[in-house]
Write a structure and sequence with these properties.
Layout (H helix, E strand, L loop, with lengths): L1 H4 L14 H25 L4 H28 L3 H5 L11 H10 L2 H23 L3 H6 L5 H22 L10 H22 L15 H6 L6 H28 L1
């Protein structure tokens, strides 16, 4: 357990990004995530909203519990606030730690917008935070608290996204787009401010840090101004494309 929790430091050498251990671990998580979302979503699709929402309530409690446990371990390792400073939930794939509980426990337009946001970004965050988390798997063993907790929380985000889709809970109303976009921009602004105050790289707005954003770094030639603008623009373009595909499908179905 001490080795799994990293107490006293890891004795194992990290297996590395895209290693067999990395791919088997995240592949298993993504497979379970997808299977559960499809089974539960299809089962609940024609049931009442209260029944549908119970699954989101459980997912919201679980994602927060895993994150709190991880932070508690970090404090127990003796670094406390110093280590937590670099582990705030201010990455794109971490936003579901806030939006999923809001979606599960709120009502009205806010709930509609947050459900849409989770539907749009949950699966993307799951893929970026598992398969695409090169920096984590290069730094820590696959079966260490950092990667296991991160893999679980990101998989729960992806599960919630797919479940919302299969259960028919995403309204994707045009009138809620400004509110859904506002959620993204508020978190982007919070990450940008945190980066300035804490000298960190939340939402990878300062640098690609070895992630697939390295393609954007090359595209803007490493510009410290164009790079963060490009990252946010990619989020917005992805969101616009997601809405466009959903509306096209709905139109085709009549």
């Amino acid at each position: 357990m001490k080795e799994f929790l990293g107490i006293g430091g890891y004795t194992r050498t990290p297996e590395g990004a895209l290693s067999p251990a990395h791919l088997i671990f995240v592949g298993t998580l993504l497979a379970v995530m997808t299977a559960l979302a499809v089974i539960l979503g299809r089962r609940n699709r024609n049931r009442d909203e209260k029944t549908k929402n119970r699954v989101l309530v459980f997912a919201a409690i679980l994602i927060v519990a895993v994150e709190v446990f991880k932070l508690a371990v970090f404090c127990a390792r003796g670094k406390g606030i110093a280590e937590m400073r670099t582990n705030l939930p201010l990455f794109l794939c971490s936003i579901q730690l806030f939006t999923l509980p809001i979606a599960a426990f709120s009502k009205g337009r806010l709930r509609e917008a947050v459900l849409d946001f989770t539907f749009i970004f949950g699966l993307l965050g799951a893929l970026l935070g598992t398969v695409g988390a090169f920096q984590n798997y290069n730094a820590y063993p696959v079966l260490g608290i950092e990667n296991v907790a991160s893999g679980l929380t990101h998989s729960i985000s992806g599960f919630a996204s797919l479940y919302i889709g299969f259960a028919g809970m995403a309204g994707m109303k045009k009138g809620n787009i400004p509110l859904t976009l506002g959620i993204l921009l508020v978190f982007s602004a919070a990450a940008f401010i945190a980066n300035k105050l804490l000298d960190y790289n939340y939402m990878f707005l300062r640098s690609d840090d070895g992630t697939p954003y390295s393609m954007l770094t090359k595209l803007v030639n490493g510009s410290p101004v164009l790079y963060p603008i490009g990252v946010i623009l990619l989020f917005v373009l992805y969101m616009a494309a997601f809405y466009g595909i959903c509306y096209a499908i709905r139109k085709k179905r009549g």
